[in-house]
Amino acid sequence: MTPDGIAWASRAVTAVVGLFVAALAYRGFRRNDAPKMRLLAVGIALLTAGVFLAVTVAEQVGAGDGVVLLTRGVVTVAGLCAVLYALVYD
To answer: Which residue in 33, 44, 61, 68 has its CB near the most CB atoms, within 10 A?
Structure first.
């Protein structure tokens, strides 16, 4: 297995586990009708699966390293903002 393959597999496992955690948070939102849980689910999904998808798509279209890093950073910041808003939202 190549280093690129190992990196891709690692990101894929992170995305799958993150989607599972996001699904649990979303289930908590549906069960308790708590908007904080929905925002937490969105944030976790963006931080894990969103980053994986963004980086994978950017690499597949042949984007340069700078574009891939920028895409990853934007999606990460969006996910962190969702999590932050979930934690401070009243």
So the answer is: 44
Query: What distance lies between CA 66 and its chain's CA centroid?
Result: 19
Q: Which two tokens stand for residue 12?
A: 């894929």
Distances (CA, A) of 9 to 5, 23, 70: 6, 21, 21
* DSSP string for 37-64: HHHHHHHHHIIIIIHHHHHHHHHHTT--
pTM of the complete model:
0.87
d(CA 43, CA 7): 22
In tens, the pLDDT along 15-68 reads 999 999 999 999 999 999 988 999 999 999 999 999 999 999 998 999 899 999
The rounded distance, in Å, linking the Cα atoms of 44 and 52 is 12
